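re: ur question from yesterday

yeah so i grabbed the chain u mentioned. its 152 aa long if i counted rite. heres the sequnce exactly as i have it in my notes:
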Amino acid sequence: MKLTFLSVGKDRSGLFSPGVDEYVKRLSHTAKVAVFELPESRASGSKAKEEEGKALLAKLSPRDVLVALDERGKGLSSVDFAKWLGRQQDSGKDVAFAIGGDEGLSDAVREKAGLVLSLSAMTLPHRLARLMLVEQVYRGFSILRGEPYHKA
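ran it thru and got these structure tokens back, copy pasting raw so excuse formatting
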């Protein structure tokens, strides 16, 4: 299984990248992992959202099941998310996660998604969402393997 994490914008603060790097390293023992930070559009508003959406979709392969991160998406517990990951793994599909930029995700990205996922009902900075997502994916695979990382 290959896991691809696509996000718009870079962590210029340096606060979140070390955590992302650590969880990506841990995940690499379970799956092939690729992380792409796509540039933010120079446009604004809906034009930026559309341009960034096209760039995100261009990174997908035909084998990918797309998960679009959106605060209006479906909320899952860690255990339910682990079960979802397990079903994808069993199906032989790869999973690509998309986190939009400041304007969010385009309608085209949400429509292409096999799962629109919410990490929280609150609006999160997308760089923090990236860290939370990678940790939850790691947690999901730990749950599937029965490891003690997740204590219910």
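noticed a couple things. Strands lie at 2-8, 32-38, 64-75, 94-99, 115-118. also The chain has a mean pLDDT of 94.
anyway ttyl
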